[in-house]
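Retro notes (design track)

What went well: tokenization of the new backbones is finally stable.
What didn't: we kept losing track of which sequence belonged to which structure.
Fix going forward: every design gets posted as structure first, then sequence, in one message. First example under the new rule, 151 residues:
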């Protein structure tokens, strides 16, 4: 019996034992192909590292205060420098609005920020920022339908 090859998304590298019309990881349609001959844009896996973690170690504890106290409190005192924060919620809950407000606050403090969107165009983001009463001199924006462009 022939060995069954997994299907791999050519957009994000997601692997699945069966063919699917839509990739459950990145949402792209028609991108899962049999592993043979797949040219994936996904990066190769990073090498895992380990070390002993002690509560008294302060390395990596530098936090960036956002100017929004409730947001800082939810993150344990601010955003840990170099970290990635995943903000989740149902559609329409205000995730993008909250992030625009946080980024505007950070930019007004002189922090370099980049707003990436796979759903909104830059004119839409600019319009929302204007409606929110943005106070900063502005920040970088990137709009693309491809997550790989952001990474």
């Amino acid at each position: 019996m022939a060995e069954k090859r997994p299907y791999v998304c050519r957009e994000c590298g997601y692997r699945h034992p069966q063919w699917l019309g839509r990739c459950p990881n990145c949402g792209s349609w028609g991108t899962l192909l049999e592993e043979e001959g797949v040219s994936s844009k996904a990066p190769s896996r990073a090498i895992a590292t380990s070390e002993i973690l002690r509560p008294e170690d302060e390395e990596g504890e530098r936090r960036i205060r956002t100017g929004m106290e409730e947001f800082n409190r939810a993150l344990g005192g601010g955003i840990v420098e170099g970290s990635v924060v995943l903000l989740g919620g149902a559609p329409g809950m205000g995730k993008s609005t909250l992030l625009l407000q946080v980024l505007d606050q950070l930019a007004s403090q002189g922090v370099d920020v980049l707003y990436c969107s796979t759903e909104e165009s830059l004119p839409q983001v600019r319009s929302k920022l204007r409606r929110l009463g943005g106070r900063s001199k502005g920040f970088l924006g990137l709009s693309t339908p491809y997550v790989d462009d952001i990474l």
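Added context from the reviewer: Helices lie at 69-74, 95-108, 122-131, 147-150.
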